[in-house]
Each structure stands twice: as structure tokens, then as C-alpha cells.
Amino acid sequence: MSIEKGLSPAALAERLELVSRMLHSRGFAHDLFPSQWMALRYFAGARTDLCTASELARFQGLANGSVSRTVRTLVHKGLLAKAAAQPRGRAEILEVTPAGRSLLAVDPQRDLEALLAGLSDSDRETLGRSLDLMLRRLPTPAAGRG
């Protein structure tokens, strides 16, 4: 695919969708689904007080029910566990297990990170601003057209 100047919004949207589909399909690796990879990454990088299923749901903009199922699956697979120290009267704090950390070492997202690391600082900043803008302005499915 060649790089073109002045791409139309439709051409940009098409390319973004193609990249999105490629990334999504790569997320079916090591007996995990893309949503499970995202949850595992979240718990590996979040502050301890934010390592709850509810905070993950808030971060992803999803309902608690589906996120709770994802978390239960990761616990069942031995990739997440209840943290030893738990605050009183609060949601259960979770942590990534050693098995989860080992799996993150072969995270399929690492290829994308390597590709992005090869971009210039300016290109990464532009991409970051553009993606942030899309995340803020694109309607979620629940708020979409009816």
C-alpha cells in the first residue's frame, strides 16, 4: 500500500478499519481473546487502587457484567489473582500473577509497539493526538445512531 497525500476521510477511515481488524485478529493468541489481553495489560499497568473489575470497566467504557466475566476467566486461567492486601469495604483488588507476567512477555501487541517505536517523535505525537480526538468524539455503540 503506497502513502498518498491528501487522503479522503473515507480512505483514512478504511485504512484505520483495516489496521483495527489486523490488530484484533492478532489478539487471538495464546488461548486468550483480545478483551482478555486488554484486561491483563490494564492490570499490569494500573495503579494498585485502580486494579478492580469496576475500574477496568470504567476504563474501557463497558458494562460491569461483561468485564466481570473476563476477569473471572483470567482468574480461572491463573493469570490474575486477588491481591494479598485488600482495603476494607472496597472492591476486590486484583494483581497479575507470575504466569500472567510471563504471558505478557509474548503479548501480540509488542509487534505494534515496536512499529510505533520506529516512528519519529513528531509522527507519534500526531498519531497520539489524532487517536485521542477520535476516542473523545466517536460515539459509543450505546450512544450511536438509533
From TrEMBL:
It comes from the Bacteria. InterPro entries: HTH_MarR-typ, MarR/SlyA-like, WH-like_DNA-bd_sf, WH_DNA-bd_sf. Gene3D superfamilies: Winged helix-like DNA-binding domain superfamily/Winged helix DNA-binding domain. Pfam families: MarR_2. Residues 9-136 form the HTH marR-type domain. This is MarR family winged helix-turn-helix transcriptional regulator.
